[in-house]
Amino acid sequence: MKRNGLEVTVVVGNEPLSEYTIAEEGDSTVICWIPSEEGKEFSIKTVNDTPSTIITCETDVDGRSMDRTICRAKASTLVRGTYSSASAVRPFTFTRIGVSDDDDLLDTDNANIEAIGTIRVSVRRVEELEKRAFVAGEYDTTEIGLLHERRKKAGVHCVSLGKEIALQKKTNRGSVGVAYLDTPEKPYCVFIFHYRSKDILQAQGIIPTIVARPSGVASSKGASGRPARASPVQHIASRAVKRQREGSLPKDSDVKEEAEESDMEDADALQAELEAIQIRLSKAKAKASHKRVKREPSPILLATSGDVIDLTLD
């Protein structure tokens, strides 16, 4: 997503995740939905394309503060997880939430339930002061753990922290002192990613579901690329399906009259189609009897079915 000369993306395997239903909220917040996959590690990439603005990116995951990083103008940063030292990180990982019917969990599970499934990057402008030795931030690395089944989070993902891994020397982090130009209550801009499994996003209509057409079923478009005209069989079938769907309606006089009118429409449409076919067939036979012509695809389709912040050193 982009805002104010900045771009923030969630990256898996060096590729940004697709973003769906991007929307603005207020003057400074942009929101979208992304698909998560259980067991996949991810990073959060920020690109600062402004000519001179220095920013900090404060990252909250599932309501937990996880990272705070500086990003200079015409530069980018990549947050892979929570940094336990200047050369080690615990990577962000999408994980399935565990549920239980243990009522004790109602009192002990995570209080910030509504934030689960959300990655929030809050951006503030800063003036850079002096570089310092790395200071590990005080972040909330508590795991989400089991939730009570009444929370209705079965099948939902959360983010856990993987095992600590060593960083390459070129990505060692330092720290820098800054003076903030924006307040926490009114940041420069905010990027919010709501993540769910692809199946859930499809069920919610956020990701379109592509239904494969069974083999042998005619395409809805003709040879010219234009939508094909429905055949009599398709027309009657569609009317029959419509009447089946309306079968649960009360059988009053209005419904009966509409059904009778529909039957007449079906008969008229069928008769018109048959007459048109007979005329075209007669013309084709007449031409064939006089001279041999090159066969062309028929235009008629007859269907059979329907402070101090972290700094990544270059």
UniProtKB/TrEMBL annotation:
Residues 243-256 have a biased composition (Basic and acidic residues). Pfam families: DUF7918. Transmembrane segments: none annotated. Residues 217-268 are annotated as: Disordered. Coiled coil: none annotated. Residues 5-208 form the DUF7918 domain. This is DUF7918 domain-containing protein.
